[in-house]
Amino acid sequence: MSEVGARKQAHLDLCAHGDVESRGSTLLEEVHLLHEALPELSVAEVDPGVTLFGRRLAAPIYISGMTGGTERAGAINRALAAAAQKAGFGFGLGSQRAMWTDPELASSYRVRDEAPDIALLGNVGVVQARTFGLAAVAELVDAVGADALCVHLNAAQELVQDEGDRDFRGGLDTIAALVESLPVPVVVKETGCGLAPATLARLRRCGVEWVDASGAGGTTWPGVEALRGSARQRALGGILREWGVPTAASVAYARRAGLSTLASGGIRSALDVVRALALGAHAAGMALPFLRAYERGGARALAALCEELTEGVRALLLLSGAARPERLAAVPRALGPQLRAWLDVADGARG
Questions:
Q1: How many angstroms separate the CA atoms of 184 and 192, rounded?
Q2: pLDDT, tens digit (0-9, with 9 covering 90-100), for 291-335
Q3: What residues contact residue 60 under an 8 Å CB cut-off, 6+ apart?
Q4: Do 220 and 22 touch, CB atoms closer than 8 A?
Q5: pTM of the predicted model as reported, rounded to 2 decimal places
Q6: Secondary structure E strands in the chain
Q7: Which domains are assigned to the chain?
Q8: pLDDT, tens digit, 9 for 90 and up, residues 256-279
């Protein structure tokens, strides 16, 4: 197995069974939607569906990118994509770096046969996009039939990896060039450390329209890397394990910046999905719950989780007095003190 394949195998094992979740908070629990005791709606009138990158979702949920590049990863991707197809969710691939470095691994990313109708998000790291070049990235998008491309930012994770990247120069120029040249939308995606207001402003100025504001409080990738081996990894991973902007603040910052926003990072329930949408997200993604459901009970467990999430979102929409997800941004809510403090810092920064 290649070095990249071995690393991806270790990531899967650790995420499926290890202590990889942040001990900090997403702050989504500080978003309190007011109960509507007289919703004047029937359940049949509540439609939790949204449109994402030209595809209709049955609920505002996507399975976040996790893996690829090994035989096991391919089986997981196909099972998750099939579940997304059946449930009407979106689906994201893990980093497609392995497709470029070893074309024999490309099949682990090809899921369109399993899921012809899903909103499919490709995935490449910003450092790899800079290295591969625009034409190669376009080939990666085309090879999997992606509806959009996530360009992921994971500097904290890379710093903890002994074999990780160390040169992050040219990222903004690379993103601007991809936005200009690719035929599909570019989604700039953090990987669990969130996006701060100044970063979001820079992204918008270079033409970015979509972000995945993946914040702190869920799976901690510095923490995952800390579990992989060396003393150096453990020490630095321990320092950076809880680093980042909490998911709730990152989503609110992105929306304030005028960017179309996806929410991920510690989304664990239908209530988290609805809270993220109330902060301005268009849809919410989760990865770890789906991976662990698959490991626990395969297709049946995945189907049960999808049903639970869809029905939960529908019920919470009704109880918030919102017949459609997009109306959640206007429903009354109360915000807790920690989240308010994060938002006040951003207000002060804008002057």
A1: 24
A2: 999 999 999 999 999 999 999 999 999 999 999 999 999 999 999
A3: 48, 49, 50, 273, 277, 281, 282, 283, 284, 313, 325
A4: yes
A5: 0.95
A6: 31-33, 50-52, 55-57, 61-63, 90-92, 120-125, 148-153, 186-190, 210-212, 260-263, 283-286, 333-335
A7: 3-350 (3.20.20.70)
A8: 999 999 999 999 999 999 999 999
